[in-house]
What we know:
alpha+beta, 8-stranded antiparallel β-sheet, 32% strand
Amino acid sequence: MMNTAPVATGWQQLRLSLPEPAQIRAFLDRGALMAWSEDCWIIAWGEAARADRPDPERPSFYVPDFFLREEKPWRIYPQAAAVSPDSLAQMLQPRDITRHWEPFDEKSFAAAFAKVTGEFRGERLQKAVPAVFETSRGALTAAERERALRNLANLPAGLMPYGFWDEKGGALGASPELLFEDDGVEIHTVAVAGTARSGAMPEDMLDDPKERNEHRLVLEDVAAQIAPLGQVTRGATRLWRIGMLSHLRTDLRVMPQSRAEFSGLVARLHPTPAVGVAPRGDWRGILPAIDGGERGYFSAPFGLALPGGRSRCLVAIRGVQWDAKTTRCGAGCGLVPGSDLARELAELRLKISATRGNLGL
């Protein structure tokens, strides 16, 4: 029997739980997860039904690709539970994993850098975020997923684990970037941009023209996207240290005048210039021309809608994705006028190193 206790009112059948070993094995084979808070993960397992909208009576996971091509992006599982990360980690076995990774193509990134720089000179773009990928042979195995989940349960506050997987492939990671959270009364979103090692001093990033400009472009874009919903409240921009990395962060909140639909919020906010381009314009045409590979689930929205109307959606970065043949670890960096190629290459290596370290891969 599962040991259950209520998490919060309004979640109907979802209860804080300690799953049985057989349920954990089923979760490792076919499952999904989303960090709802620092001490509560929503996990699901079994054969997922695909749908074009969330189920109002079950936790529903939103798993589109970056370009939102999926006609039925919602995955609804037959079993779900709320668990504490610590309790879940105690039920997972430590695994010794050895996986070889091929580095991303720095020459291709340099070519993308030159192309974007030319767009800056023509004033057609103010910011662009090319993506690169390290690759490794073979799918992420159940044993590797088990190790990665143990690692994710012990990450510092601020990183939000997410993922889904089945026999065809999946994605797993821990994102620092909230696309939006909707509690039915207020919508909360975050502008996160600018990156440095975690030892950076606040004044170093806040006074750096490149980092400040990169963050400003994201902040102004996100604020403009949610402004039609109601009065926007902005928090102070601050240095945000999470694990190996530090970022500039500004929180934004809005109380919409009418109910905001999940799909409408995704359409309004995705992709922010933190993972796309500014101005948004033809992002679907621009990004494939500068990326170092098909994005797939990298930097796509990854969401969860709960019974009762509450929802949360992350930006699926700092993770890996896989199919039957290949596992890929992606990263992106924000290019703005004044960006330096060597500095951006170092940022990409740092992000990939941090991601693989977070997952124990």
